[in-house]
Design a protein that fits this description.
The radius of gyration is 21 Å and the shape is globular. The protein folds into 2 domains: about 5-10 and about 260-380, Aspartate Aminotransferase, domain 1 (Alpha-Beta Complex); about 15-255, Type I PLP-dependent aspartate aminotransferase-like (Major domain) (Aspartate Aminotransferase, domain 2, 3-Layer(aba) Sandwich). It starts with a strand and ends with a helix. The protein has a 7-stranded mixed sheet, with helices on both faces. It has a 3-stranded antiparallel sheet with strand order 9-10-12, with helices on one face. A two-stranded parallel sheet has the order 1-11. It has 12 helices and 12 strands. The relative contact order is 0.17. About 40% of the residues lie in helices and about 10% in strands. By secondary structure, the chain is of the alpha/beta class.
């Protein structure tokens, strides 16, 4: 049976070059990076070279890069530590953030930190004027703005330059969850007024279980994981050398080929949108995911004109046909709750119809797209 993987926003296949690099380190350079003997020093050299590579690719200094287990840990570290060690008393966020941010923000609220949510427009965009109003209202307090660059469900893009300038105007800290962005867009933190970003390697064809946080050197955070004092005392635990090396390799490749791969993937997205609109009458798109300028080139979130009984079989049918896609964030899979993002941006009537997220990568082909369109068309029109 033909199989097509269109759930790259959940995770991506690992590049062969990355696997090869990781295997070499696993086999030969297994020492503990904190050990002072030659085996440890060799592992440490891999860690620090990776740190320098990643820092140079985002315009940061090596001492501003902290390795973590992924995006979720980095979000937790940045938000919690900003409150604990930087004196943040007020957080401005949105109700359509990834739960790694949203739940952490609500945890801080339960501990006495004031939390405000910026208004979301009907198309899923941030109301920038409301954001400025919130910043002005709270300007007497130390504030943190945490808003994601690329929404992981509807693909909307945040104007990070604009938000950074607003935060600077009101002397607020700015964190952007860039897990869906890093490795897909060029980043230069020296040209954006931003204090924190974070990444997960498995979103750009690297291994799972590793990520990094960029922390502006002026922001000294306290650790959330306490122990051996690794990662400059900010994140304890023996560094996962092979994963860090794999992440650096994946990031290097992603940045080297970013523009060509972006155009290739964008062409697949446009082919998919054109096919959906021509083959399925009444199909609609959530957020700005059908707009190639205002949303990421890597995903489409569509709403299908199906009855409730037929909608209940949709994902099962796609899986039977060998197609991987998702109803919402993969981090919510297994939960009976609907998508909090779609709940925030869709009308009551629109919520009656099923939505699917399709996300693309360099490993997909036009044949993949055409096959998925054929399967969807047959199911919706049959």
């Amino acid at each position: 049976m033909k199989t097509v993987y269109l759930d790259n926003a959940a995770t991506t296949p690992v590049r062969e070059e990355v696997i090869s690099e990781m295997i070499t380190v696993l086999g030969s350079d297994f020492g503990n990076p904190s050990s002072t003997h030659s085996f440890g020093r060799k592992a440490r050299s891999h860690i620090e070279l990776a740190r320098k590579q990643i820092a140079s690719l985002i315009g940061a200094s090596p001492n501003e890069i902290i390795f973590t287990s992924g995006g979720t840990e980095a979000d937790n570290l940045i938000i919690k530590s900003s409150c604990e060690s930087l004196g943040v008393k007020r957080i401005i966020s949105s109700e359509i953030e990834h739960h790694a941010v949203l739940d952490t923000v609500l945890k801080m609220k339960s501990q006495g930190v004031e939390v405000c949510f910026v208004r979301i427009l009907p198309d899923g965009s941030i109301d920038y004027e409301h954001l400025e109003t919130l910043l002005e209202e709270g300007s007497s307090k130390k504030q943190l703005v945490t808003l994601m660059h690329v929404n992981n469900e509807i693909g909307n893009l945040l104007d990070v330059q604009r938000v950074g300038e607003l935060c600077n105007k009101y002397q607020a800290l700015f964190h952007s969850d860039t897990v869906q962005s890093v490795g897909h867009y060029k980043w230069d933190v020296s040209k954006v007024k931003i204090d924190f970003i974070n990444a997960a390697a498995h979103k750009f064809h690297g291994p799972k279980g590793v990520g990094f946080a960029y922390m502006n050197k002026s922001c000294k955070l306290c650790p959330q994981i306490i122990g051996g004092g690794q990662e400059k005392g900010i994140r304890a635990g023996t560094e996962m050398t092979h994963n860090v090396v794999g992440m650096a390799k994946a990031f290097e490749i992603a940045n080297a080929h970013l523009e060509n791969e972006k155009q290739y993937v964008l062409a697949l997205k446009k082919r998919f949108i054109t096919g959906l609109t021509s083959k399925i009458e009444g199909v609609a798109f959530n957020g700005l995911s059908a707009d190639s300028e205002s949303s990421t080139y890597t995903l489409v979130n569509c709403r299908l004109p199906l009855t409730e009984s037929k909608a209940s079989m949709l994902l099962f049918h796609m899986d039977l046909k060998g197609i991987a896609c998702s109803q919402g964030s993969a981090c919510q899979s297994g939960s009976q709750k609907g998508s909090h993002v779609l709940s925030a941006v869709l009308t009551t009537e629109q919520k009656q119809y099923p939505s699917l997220r399709f996300s693309f990568s360099i490993f997909n082909t036009e044949e993949d797209i055409d096959y998925v369109l054929e399967v969807l068309s047959e199911f919706c029109n049959g």
